[in-house]
């Protein structure tokens, strides 16, 4: 993936919550734009959101590019909240991308910026370990109260 000329280190890490039921979907979210149409705002994550979403429906291809996608739905309420890029197309892989293949629709989720260990500053992607000490599942339990507020 071509991320060398692009820097995402200064982006805030977000907790992503389902707008329909307030379920925490990911504790490693990032604001993003659709590569094939930069007018569309999304959120993305780099780690599969286990125990929060599941696949629904059949795989499909976009009209704008040749990525193979499959929708994901919130396990708590069943609403479609985004999609997983099953197979990215060459065009998207070669463009400036963050390497995230789990995408969330901005109409279906909301974000809360995570704080760093001091509890004062926003946590940035450049300061986030590739794999956090807690599993994403543990972090979801801790941050669930954030979505309810």
UniProtKB/TrEMBL annotation:
Superkingdom, taxonomy of origin: Eukaryota
GO cellular component: cytosol
Pfam families assigned to the protein according to its UniProt record, in alphabetical order: YPEH2ZP (PF14976)
InterPro entries in UniProt: YPEH2ZP (IPR026768)
Protein family according to the UniProt entry: Belongs to the FAM72 family.
Protein name: Family with sequence similarity 72 member A
Native organism: Suricata suricatta (Meerkat)
